[in-house]
Design brief:
2 copies of one chain form a homodimer. Chain A is an all-alpha fold and about 375 residues long. The first copy, chain A, is built from 16 helices and 2 strands. Chain A has a single domain (about 25-355), classed as Farnesyl Diphosphate Synthase (Orthogonal Bundle).
Chain lengths: ~375, ~375
């Protein structure tokens, strides 16, 4: 389900490692500081929660989080970028609420994210995450499935035991989000099995929104709930996180084709070589152009020498890159409208804006 | 995780299909009526909840519940025996609470049970459940995992949206139970991989308690919560369901070796032929008797003609059958003590007692 590129194929990029022409350093610095602060307040809560798990489950989870090596010895692990907890806590602050009261909820959202990562790796047979062998390759498929199941339960338990008046509404929202994440992943698995001409752009956009946008939107909405915001503002915050997530996915897909391998950490065109139906590819296939037809032919035939260059060119000529970039801009505009609806004061909204820009631009 | 024999290998047995010497008909009739009433009140709630799932997820779940065939056409399915919902609702009544207020919670417990069945079938590669191909064999492993994930989320969502004052405590209890179920299943998978001499009786008992007892205990405790019972009574109800569940597992394991295949629906000695470390087997292995040593040897060597009879005899001579039967009686006694602590009035406790007897004796 939704995952940031930096958490999958390559390791966490430096937050300030930004190309020329990217937003001015202060924005990146603000985001980096928000992420660092979120990590610092949420990680002790996460560790406490994980300590409550029975021994065998705990071992798998501690390995997954990078806190332990496979043999159970301590590791100086990097849990991930804590983008979702940062969205929860920054949304609380933006609405004038006290952050500490929402740390449990922020940890619960991060546990749900990690539950989906554990299960996604099993389903996608991904062997590496955060530069380390995935949990299922170390402990087996059953243990990875069970650790994910336990993390979902743990997240809900934490919310059910959290005395904050917003915790029950947050639990309902997070559970509804999990249903959406699962449906998104299910559609993704199904789409990858279908022929290139049997996939529509609307389907792929809806799938990406469910897989990547939903939990980011939920994180912002949970922050709104914990700050005591009204229903309309909470929905607007959800739109903000959701649309920013979709913008991220569009940009990530562009990078997956035209990105600099030295920066992205994956070989150029890797997505194309595995015939991935990423957003620019599906847009190109649906373009009705000669280049789109050529792309369909290339995707339907076995991989040959020289195919990669031709495929990249076909996606570009069919308008896949332009479409993805303008779609990403459109999604960011929608995100901004959601944000200003929920938090009209630009200064108060600054932290969330910085996080959204960090997420969508830093790897551009 | 915990599952009743009638839901796995063979189909649902008739509740009144009971051998000579079993409890008097009225008890079985009372249990059958309680199960039927629970099914009638919970199934509409289950169907409503499942209808709220996105299309692709809903399809897998509707198939799993037996409401649809694999092609999506309606089926006159049998959802299962509804033992857990019946325990929730009967506990509520026993404590003088109104049953209708707890129907959502009863449905949530049943959803959790079915989430574990979907995942267990994937992990154990079981091909049949309730006389039908398991969901993963029809829709694939990914869809079955995701449908299970979604059912866990749906259960928590229902409790989070349930306005009953006990719903939050029930959500916490159910989530904690899921963690225990997962740990039990994890230990089970691990034990099956270990050599027969590397498994202790305490480990297998603890595993069976977590896998089979925990959710039955939780169902009773949730009923107690919804009836407004005090903490001590709720814990006593948990003990009742948990110990009755363990008694059931012990008896089920005995039947798996010495049961009448015509009644159990599985071939005699099937568990032994796959070298299953069931409770009577582990007791026999741990007995320190010559028969126990012979059993260890048989379990360590490849299956040969005549081995089955020798294995059955070795478990019996090593005291495995006697131990399991006296252990089951002991567990039922503990269950009864829990019940009478929570509900001292025998008349009020009658329904729960009938369900426990139904569960543990009907297939004896």
């Amino acid at each position: 389900m939704g995952e940031f590129m930096t958490e999958t194929k390559q390791g966490p990029a430096e937050p300030l490692d930004r190309p020329e022409g990217a937003p001015s350093p202060p924005v990146g610095q603000e985001a980096a500081a928000l992420l660092e602060r979120a990590r610092a307040s949420v990680e002790p809560e996460l560790r406490r929660a994980v300590e409550s798990l029975p021994g065998p489950t705990r071992r798998v989870v501690r390995y997954h989080f990078g806190w332990e090596h496979a043999d159970g010895t301590p590791a100086a692990g990097h849990t991930g970028k804590a983008i979702r907890p940062a969205l929860v806590l920054t949304a609380v602050t933006a609405l004038g609420g006290p952050q500490p009261a929402a740390v449990t909820a922020a940890a619960a959202v991060e546990l749900v994210h990690n539950f989906t990562l554990l299960h996604d790796d099993v389903m996608d047979r991904d062997a590496t995450r955060r530069h380390r062998p995935t949990a299922w390759t170390v402990f087996g498929v059953a243990d990875a499935i069970l650790a994910g199941d336990a993390l979902q339960a743990l997240a809900q338990r934490m919310l059910a035991e959290d005395p904050h008046p917003a915790s029950t509404a947050a639990a309902a929202r997070l559970a509804a989000c999990v249903v959406e994440l699962c449906a998104g992943q299910q559609v993704d698995v199904a789409l990858e099995r279908r022929g290139p001409d049997e996939v529509t752009l609307d389907e792929v956009l809806a799938m990406a929104e469910a897989k990547t946008g939903a939990l980011l939107g939920c994180a912002c909405a949970v922050g709104g709930l914990y700050a005591g915001a009204g229903e309309g503002d909470i929905d607007a915050l959800d739109v903000f996180g959701r649309e920013a997530g979709l913008a991220f996915q569009l940009i990530d897909d562009v990078i997956g084709i035209w990105g600099d391998p030295g920066r992205t950490g994956k070989p150029a065109g890797a997505d194309l070589m595995v015939r991935k139906k990423s957003l620019p590819v599906v847009a190109a296939l649906a373009s009705g152009t000669p280049a789109g037809a050529e792309l369909a032919e290339l995707y339907a035939s076995p991989y040959e020498e020289g195919h990669l260059e031709r495929t990249v060119l076909a996606v570009e000529r069919a308008g896949g890159r332009d479409w993805a970039q303008s779609q990403a801009a459109d999604r960011m505009a929608r995100a901004m409208r959601g944000l200003s609806r929920a938090i009209p004061d630009p200064e108060a909204a600054g932290g969330l804006l910085a996080l959204a820009e960090f997420v969508t631009r830093r790897s551009n």
